[in-house]
Amino acid sequence: MKKLFIIFLCIHFIHSLNILVYQTLPGSSHIAFSGKIVDILVQAGHTVDKLIIEWNPNVLSNGTTLARRIKRFGLNTNSPWLSATHVVKPFDNVYYHPFDDEPVFYRKTLSQFCEAMVEDESLLEWIKEGKYDSVLSSAYDACGHGLFHLAEIKPVMIYSPTNLIDHWALMLGIPAMASYVPNPLRNNGQGDKMSLTQKISALADRTYQQQIVLPSYHEVQNSIFQRKFGPSFPSLTELAKQSSMVFVNSHPLLELGRPYSHKIQQIGGITLKESSGKLSNEFEEILNDRYKGAIVFSFGSLAKTDQIPIKIHEIFAKAFNNFPQYTVIWKFDGENTEFMSNYSNIYPVKWIQQIELLNDPRVKLFISHTGLNSLLESAHSGTPVLSIPLFLDQNYNAHVVESRGVGLKLLKSEITVASLTDAIQKILTNESFSENAKNLQKMLKNFPNKSEKTLINWIEYVSSFKDYGNHIQLQSANMSTFEYFCGDIFFVLFFASFSLFYLLYSILKYFHFLLKQKLKIE
Ligand SMILES: *[C@@H]1O[C@H](CO)[C@@H](O)[C@H](O)[C@H]1NC(C)=O
Ligand SMILES: *[C@@H]1O[C@H](CO)[C@@H](O)[C@H](O)[C@H]1NC(C)=O
Ligand SMILES: *[C@@H]1O[C@H](CO)[C@@H](O)[C@H](O)[C@H]1NC(C)=O
Ligand SMILES: *[C@@H]1O[C@H](CO)[C@@H](O)[C@H](O)[C@H]1NC(C)=O
Ligand SMILES: *[C@@H]1O[C@H](CO)[C@@H](O)[C@H](O)[C@H]1NC(C)=O
Fold first, then answer.
1. For residues 163 and 203, what is the distance between their CA atoms, to the nearest angstrom?
2. Which of 449, 452, 461 to probe ligand 2 with, by most ligand atoms within 8 A of CB?
3. Which SUPFAM superfamilies does the protein's record reference (predicted)?
4. pLDDT by residue (tens digit) across 163-205?
5. pTM for the full model?
6. In the chain, domain spans
7. Ligand nearest to the CA of 337
8. For residue 145, how far is its CA from the centre of ligand 2 (angstroms)?
9. Do 13-271+450-477 and 281-445 show the same overall fold?
């Protein structure tokens, strides 16, 4: 009897869940992140399906092989996402200011895909067939919320392969003061310490985003659902607000400090791979080539070498030539390497063993665009960084590098042979950078809780208590901007003090009148 009871208890606690992971796919880092979530959940004993919406059909990976069913959904025509500025010209200065093209491409992508998804009824059938206990949806697209509502799946949780983006902070009523919380996706040099002009720009941008741009993203999709299912179909904003939890790819040590609510769980680092500790012979030889060590240079996988102007390449080569005691391993997928042929310390390679290299003590510096994965890998390996952010959250990550003291930031618009040489020189000769990098590595390693465990525990908990999200909702999630910023209170106070002032004024005036009368009489 006792035994049976224990078995019953066990069954109760490791009840296997049926989970859907919904991924709109803008780029490979997103699929790697959601794929890892699938892997972790399957390894914890749950059944997981994955629905991939191919914004970027060039990314073929599913991120996982452990999902029970994987469905990929694409358009019959070209995806508008592939024409977005940062995809086509990564080296252009796209500041994501309100009047940029980026929101236009984003909106176009959102509406075209959502339209196709709603029209294709077999997609909804596929979702219903799964009989899911809960769903994890990408933070970058709300169309799924409409489909989950139709399929009656609850609770909905969110994952973001980046930091908490403004969109979700604003929807969930989480403080995002323009004075010190930069928009992590706005690539314009703002960190958490801003000048007055930067603060003004941050406030203007956030207000515009909040009032106009972000609502427009949901609006284009709302209209699709309302056209098909009638005007009473709930707005995607309302559905999205009811999400129970948001898992973000950030870590307290690898972000700029900001407030959160209980709806946010940080699971940064789940995609991090262990170094195998084994370098290929090719890299072994290259690392031993120069006596002071090596520099690793990579702009990641999204920005193709050919999309970067040759002029910029030449500047890099000339700057590297100023450090003949160091080997430079350059991840270079272009064909023309002629311009660097005279510099014997530069090795262009098509593919690098990034983690193994960064974990090798002979590597003294990592020159990187600081995509989130590169930031994580350099931080966990204790390697100093020269950050040259290209787009989106990379600028934010560059500020993290600077504020942890593990490296420097150089804007792509400021790249010259002199500025590059100077920055490289500083990091290689000033020990504070490598010391801080080693210290950060240690702090990360000994962090008291583990991201994977956080993810599993919360998904299991939230899936079993379906209204948990309502309990922890901030009231601010339901407030208008006017009410949120105490506009109503100021309004009342203003009129109260105005009335008081008027009353005092009238009394004084009356006494004045009395006084005058008295004087007249005398
Ligand atoms: C991704 O999943 C689909 C559907 O299961 C499958 O056809 C395809 O081969 C997978 N792609 C890769 C790269 O494994
Ligand atoms: C672990 O730490 C992160 C970051 O502070 C936090 O978001 C998460 O809730 C913690 N997990 C647990 C289980 O306490
Ligand atoms: C390499 O050096 C040679 C000899 O100094 C010079 O003629 C040639 O133009 C150089 N090539 C490049 C690509 O700079
Ligand atoms: C090294 O860099 C740190 C941080 O930028 C700076 O405070 C310090 O003065 C530098 N030391 C030297 C010797 O330049
Ligand atoms: C927020 O507002 C919506 C409709 O505007 C309402 O349905 C919901 O109950 C409100 N939530 C809270 C917590 O007040």
1. 19
2. 449
3. UDP-Glycosyltransferase/glycogen phosphorylase
4. 999 999 999 999 999 999 998 887 667 889 999 999 998 999 8
5. 0.88
6. 13-271+450-477, 281-445, 484-511
7. 3
8. 26
9. yes
